[in-house]
Amino acid sequence: MSARLPHARYEELVVGHALSALEPEDEELLLRHLPGCAACAADLALHRDTLGQLAHVADAGPPPPGLWSGIRAQVEASGRPVSFASSSPASRGSGSSRVDELQRRRDLRARLASRTTAWTSVAAAVAVVAGLGLWNLDLQRDRDAQGAVSQRLTQAVRAMEESPARTVPLAAADGRVTAVAVVHADRLSLVVDGLEPNDAASSTYVLWGTSSGMPAQALAAFDVRDGQVDVVRDLPLPVSARAPLEQLLITHEEGRAAPASTRQTPLAAGRAA
Amino acid sequence: MRTGVTLPNRRAPRSAPAGVPEVGTLAGQDDRALIGRVVEGDGSALEVLYQRYGRACYGLARRILVDEQLAQDCVQEVFVALWRDAGRFDAARGGFSTWLLSMTHHKAVDAVRREENLRKRRTSADALETRESDDPPVDDEVWSRLRGERVRTALQTLPDVQREALTLAYFGGYTQREIAGLTSTPLGTVKTRMLTGMRRMRSSLDGLSGAAGQDAPERDR
pLDDT tier at A169 (50, 70, 90 boundaries)? Predict the structure, then answer.
């Protein structure tokens, strides 16, 4: 039987538990403690939330097309009554799952053959992380809404992919990217993450476009909500703005309509050309 | 245990709940509503959840397991487990995506520890490597641009040793003791670094400047 630990030790164990990194004896200690400690339970939820956000940085691209087919096959074989709508996009590819599988195996063999096995120091690995900046993270607070936002973005992006588009990051003066515009010949979409929420009763953000020799033209007015990734979809580009855009700018304006011109300092800008 | 890659023949559903909505209709529903439908036997709701989070689950499993096939097996296991027992999700204890990704992480770490050969083959650099990407589609680019800045900022708040401890545990699947051995650091110090690093990350992600007030002093044991 072990003596009670100082609470600070349990706090460390909670982190290790969230990371699935505890040794069995520590795991056992914590699991005895957790049911009676609301503070540790709350900490665990917070740590899991943080790690859940971190998980998004490990993006490996879309899952292989055959993966859903395999899940669906197991679901249908599970013995539980199940029904699928007939027009499910992910299952449309299931007929080619065997082909997908063979291709996947070929890809895997090729990658394994080319993988080096040299041990790289831990410090170097961490430096690689920092240097390459391969991290990204979802900061949305409303976790249940996250999927819906993601879905909207994906739909927006798919629509964008139907015709050639340019992706234009818009950065603040400190270099921080706060929005990305996807510009088509006749329309654009904007994904905003990092601008302060505006007062939707009395102000608006405005996206401006500049073309060679032309004054900046308001392309769209939009609001930014708190803690959300805002997706402004398929804004029609005025005909007069369809000349090759050189630069996109975002300003914050008083009033609810985009003014004809602005004297505000741009909050973010990006080269479109 | 790895599941086979050969897919069984698809069977016709044994019964179907009346009025199964199209996937497109379900796509607008929130996670909790979809889970409710999964509990009732709606496979299309499960499919929408897969469309929503399958990519994140796959990316996480792929990063931890390195092996693409193992990663697929892991994600398959997660979603089949979700199908079998969706009622285990308790919304009062956190968001669905957090729960699902936590389950994915747990299963991936279990798998990587079982696969000793794989474990020996991979390096910690593998665990942290950037994905092999050919021309990322527009959505990848959009997301990575949007999130990259935020995350870099959050990570830059971490001293190297804290970032090292967290990444080796989370993406490498190493235990605290293994990390202590890998980094020639006392176990107690590793634990403290993890706690401090997590608090700092949390603080950064909450948009608070600095987290010094929450830092625990490092100790050696």
Answer: confident
Hey, what amino acid is at B48? Answer: V
Residues with Cβ < 8 Å from A22, sequence gap 6 or more? A13, A16, A30, B175, B176
Tokens of B42: 């709606």
Say yes or no for a CB contact (<8 Å) between B13 and A87: no
**pLDDT score, position A83:** 84
Categorise residue A92: left if φ over 0, alpha if ψ from -120 to 50, beta otherwise: alpha
Partner A contacted by B196 (CB < 8 A): no
Q: How many CA atoms lie within 13 A of B108 on its CB side?
A: 31
Quick check: B105 contacting A, CB < 8 Å?
yes
Mean pLDDT of B53-82: 91
Which of these, A178, A101, A111, lies nearest to A139 by C-alpha position?
A: A178
The nearest CA of chain B is from the CA of A144 a distance in Å of: 6
Contact with chain A for residue B85, Cβ under 8 A: no
Structure token pair of residue B31: 């996670």
How far is the alpha carbon of A175 from chain B, nearest alpha carbon, in Å? 9
- Does B62 sit within 8 Å of A58, measured CB to CB? yes
Q: b/e map of B167-197 (b: 16 or more CB within 10 Å)?
A: bbbbbbbbbbbbbbebbebebbbbbbbbbbb
Farthest CA pair distance, chain B: 63
Its ipTM equals 0.73
